[in-house]
Each structure stands twice: as structure tokens, then as C-alpha cells.
Design goal:
heterodimer; A: alpha+beta; seven-stranded mixed sheet; 3 helices; elongated; B: mainly alpha; 2 domains; about 5% strand
Chain lengths: ~300, ~200
């Protein structure tokens, strides 16, 4: 039996908390979160060739977060919602200006020692902030609900088909985000798209090492932690689904916003996909695809 | 009586306009402070020389400076800001190498922490998780980001460090003044001691 999971619940909870501190227009933000379905760890597994699946191969009780790139349709609607909220904010501003002018006249007439009223800021297209739509399309897998947990941890979920970006390790409250370099990949219908993810120890030159030397300082252990993401190992080809598993095809993503104020990190370079030059990612794919292809 | 008042008003206006002119050259809003580019000569170079002790060495995970050879002050300040802002959740993403999608997103979303209706997730996190965790997080972020930008890290004695560094929870003008001092160090002569790496 599949267990329905409302993805992004943690992110939405945080958004609700943030909304309490922003203007009323923030409550108008309305978008369907991603629906994902866990494939349970059973001896018999039946997959649907009309559906899309994501398999994450990881270590122990790992938590990984991804987000789905929104469709053009969703972007248009999100922009419309912003325009409506901006219009509302402009109406509020008219009223705020009337109050300000009244208060200013009173202040000037009294010439009192009280603080001069502050001029309300007029909302404009340029200064009216609005959350990124991508931040509402996140999904977090793990630490529980594993499809397999013997030699390796596997998480298998039915997800909406589309293009995904690896956001980071952890959940919104405690996130190590791949904000300084990540990857995107398609999750098409009719297959299980697989990735392997592992936090990796690094030496002082940021080269991967098997483990930290004895006596490594606590802060150094946290700082010198890299994010490995690559295609699956043979352990991901679980007999129940082996014929369905296909390695994800990665493309580089130069930077992501730090939505949750977590630690910022970047994925390790991937042979044949990209290398780093400072904070730039150098595309090393043989035939780079067009960036517009995702929509 | 009314002439005295008028004269007083004119005098006040005169003083006010001079003050306004001086104020106009200094950044006023947080956004302006974040874009402020001072003359290098206006920014004092901090004191960096010290006799290293074992106690100093044990604190280099917390007290350090960044430096990169052949780097000018403006570039160093820009890089420090890149990392500081990324850490604070103030940077837009770039999902596609040709940036075409980012340009569209900017139009749709407006600025992060904009003048109207913006809220910075990092600031919220400060409130929720408390200062100790935020200090640790900032150290992680600055060390990683500056390393990947090609800067080397050198240890510094705590008292010297405290004069021009911060761990979080400060107002924007003060933050930018301290980042400017850090940029002088980052673009100046090679600091003493060994490179500590990431």
C-alpha cells in the first residue's frame, strides 16, 4: 500500500511561521506543493510505466532535499499572484499616506518633541519582494521510509515527472545546501531515476578523503564536509526494481538561494559533467543541452 | 516676534541643508550600505602582527583572516560580500549557466528582503535558533565560500581579530564597515603564519 506524503510540509510550516511576520498579502501565496508517494519496502513491488520514480541511494539515516523546476504555467500564475498582491499593497499605501499626512500635520502644528512620523515606502515593481516559486516545490526524503536498509539505504518515491535540482542534505530547519554549486536532472516517466548521495570528508585543500585524521577539530569536521552526488552504485539495482533503474543525467547548476539560512556548500565535481573554476562551474558535458529545454 | 521665529527657521534650514548634503554622501538604507564602495584609503588597515602562542593556535578555528594575492580592494570587498550575503540568504540562485531564467525570475520575484514585504529567512533563523548556532554557521559558510573563491586562511590572535570582525547579529552599516576592513586585509600584504586551508 502506498503511503501518501505531503512533501514540503516542513518548508510550508516554516513559511507559515514567516507569514505571521509579513504583510497580509503574503497569505495570498497559493501554489500546489509536490505530491510524492513512498514505495514501501515489500517483497513484491509493482511500478507503473506511466509514472516517474526517484531513487536515492545514500548512507544510514540520511536526509536529502530536492526541488522541482516549475512549469511556465506555474510561473505565469505566480507572477499574477504577485501582481495582485502588489496592487493590494498599493491600495494599502494610499491609506497609509493619508494617515501619514494627517500625523505629519499634527506633528508640525504641535512642534512637539515626539518623533516625526515615518514616510511610508511606496510599493513598486522593483521593491516588492515575493518568495521564489521554487521554494514551494521542495521535497525532503528520509531519514525514515527507506525502501531498503541493509548494505545501503535506498529511498524510492513516485514523484511528478519533470526536472529536479538537488537542494542539499537535511531538512529546512537544518540544511546544508548545495548553494554554491549543484546539479539538475530529468525524472521522466517509465523508469526509476537513480542518484547516489553521500556527505564526504575533505582535506584542507577540499579533496575527498576516506575519513578525518584522528584529533580533527569539531569545527573543521563540519566545515570540511563535501556533498557527493553521482550516479547509483550496483547496490541501487535492488532485484525488485533492477530493470527500471537508470542513472540520472546531470547538468551543472551554478548557484541556489539559501532559503533556510542554513550552511552553504557545493557538490563535488563530477567527471564528464563539470569542473570548478573558483565559484564558476565549467560545463564538461560532451553535448551540453539548452538551458531552455527544462520548460 | 514672528521675525525672530522666521530668522531662527532660516538658520535651522541652513544647518539642515548642510547636514542633508553630508548625509547624502553616506549610505542611508541597508540596501545602500550593501552597495557602498568606499575609497581604500578611507579604510583603516587593522593591526595584524602578534607573537603566536599555543593558545592562539588552538583558536584558529574561530579567529582567522582571509587573503588572496594579486587581489585589489574592490574585488576583495565584493567577494566578502558575496559570501556574507550567500550565508545570510540574500542571493538569488542561478539555475542555468546562461542566466536567462534568472533574469526572468528576478522580474517576477523582486528583490530578496525588499523594501516592501520582504523577509530574510536567515534573520528568522537567527531568532529561532539563537546566537551560538548562528555564529558556528557563519564560520562554516565564510570558510567554505572564501576558500572556493581562492582565498587563503590565516590564524589571528583573538583580540586583534575582534577589532574588525564579527560573528553575526549586527546592524548593516557596522557590518559593511567591518567587511571593508577585512577587504583591506584580504587585498593587502601576505599575513604572517601558515595557510590553514579550508
Amino acid at each position: 500500500m502506498m503511503k501518501r506524503v505531503e512533501a514540503s510540509a516542513a518548508a510550508l510550516g516554516l513559511v507559515a511561521l514567516l507569514s505571521a511576520f509579513t504583510s497580509a498579502s503574503a497569505l495570498a501565496q497559493d501554489v500546489e506543493p509536490i505530491r510524492i508517494d513512498r514505495i514501501a519496502d515489500r517483497s513484491e513491488v509493482t511500478l507503473d510505466s506511466g509514472k516517474a520514480y526517484l531513487l536515492v541511494e545514500g548512507t544510514g539515516m540520511m536526509v536529502s532535499t530536492f526541488f522541482k523546476l516549475p512549469s511556465d504555467e506555474m510561473r505565469v500564475d505566480w507572477a499574477r499572484q504577485r501582481e495582485e498582491a502588489l496592487a493590494e499593497a498599493r491600495e494599502d499605501h494610499v491609506r497609509a499616506m493619508a494617515r501619514y499626512e494627517r500625523d505629519l500635520a499634527y506633528f508640525e502644528a504641535r512642534n512637539s518633541a515626539q518623533r516625526r512620523p515615518e514616510l511610508p515606502v511606496e510599493p513598486t515593481e522593483e521593491n516588492f519582494a515575493w518568495p521564489e516559486l521554487e521554494s514551494r516545490q521542495t521535497m525532503t526524503l528520509g531519514p525514515q521510509n527507506r525502501f531498503a536498509n541493509d548494505d545501503v539505504s535506498l529511498w524510492l518515491y513516485e514523484v511528478p515527472a519533470g526536472e529536479y535540482i538537488f537542494y542539499g542534505l537535511g531538512m529546512p530547519e537544518f540544511m546544508d545546501c548545495a548553494c554554491m554549486g549543484s546539479v539538475r536532472f530529468e525524472v521522466p516517466v517509465g523508469q526509476v531515476t537513480a542518484v547516489r548521495i553521500e556527505p564526504t570528508a575533505l582535506d584542507p585543500r577540499a579533496n575527498p578523503i576516506a575519513e578525518f585524521p584522528d584529533g580533527t577539530d569539531g569545527t573543521d569536521r563540519v566545515v570540511r564536509s563535501g556533498l557527493l552526488i553521482e550516479g547509483p552504485s550496483e547496490l541501487a539495482f535492488d532485484p525488485r526494481i533492477a530493470n527500471w533503474v537508470r542513472p540520472a543525467q546531470f547538468a551543472p547548476v551554478p548557484s541556489l538561494p539559501n532559503w533556510y539560512g542554513g550552511t552553504i556548500n557545493r557538490v563535488l565535481p563530477i567527471d564528464g559533467v563539470f569542473a570548478y573554476d573558483g565559484l564558476q562551474m565549467v560545463d564538461r558535458r560532451e553535448q551540453p543541452t539548452s538551458s531552455a529545454g527544462g520548460q | 516676534m514672528k521675525y525672530a521665529i522666521a530668522a531662527l527657521a532660516l538658520a535651522c534650514a541652513g544647518v539642515a541643508s548642510v547636514a542633508a548634503q553630508e548625509a547624502a554622501t553616506q549610505p542611508q538604507t541597508d540596501q545602500e550600505w550593501m552597495a557602498w564602495m568606499p575609497d581604500e584609503a578611507e579604510i583603516a588597515m587593522p593591526a595584524l602582527a602578534f607573537e603566536e602562542t599555543g593558545g592562539d593556535r588552538s583558536n584558529y578555528d574561530k579567529y582567522y583572516i582571509f587573503h588572496r594575492p594579486d587581489t585589489d580592494f574592490q574585488t576583495a570587498l565584493g567577494d566578502l560580500r558575496t559570501c556574507d550575503e550567500s550565508a545570510r540568504g540574500l542571493r538569488r540562485g542561478n539555475y542555468f549557466p546562461d542566466s536567462s531564467q534568472t533574469a526572468t525570475n528576478m522580474m517576477q520575484y523582486g528583490p530578496i528582503g525588499g523594501a516592501v514585504g520582504g523577509l530574510i529567512a536567515g534573520a528568522m533563523m537567527d531568532a529561532i535558533f539563537g546566537s551560538g548556532e548562528m555564529r558556528a554557521k557563519r564560520r562554516v559558510n565564510m570558510r567554505r565560500c572564501m576558500f572556493y573563491l581562492g582565498y587563503s586562511r590565516f590564524g589571528l590572535q583573538k583580540d586583534l581579530w575582534t577589532a574588525f570582525n564579527f560573528e553575526g547579529g549586527i546592524e548593516e552599516p557596522e557590518r559593511q564597515r567591518l567587511l571593508a576592513q577585512q577587504a583591506r586585509v584580504a587585498s593587502g600584504p601576505r599575513p604572517q603564519g601558515e595557510e590553514l586551508g579550508l
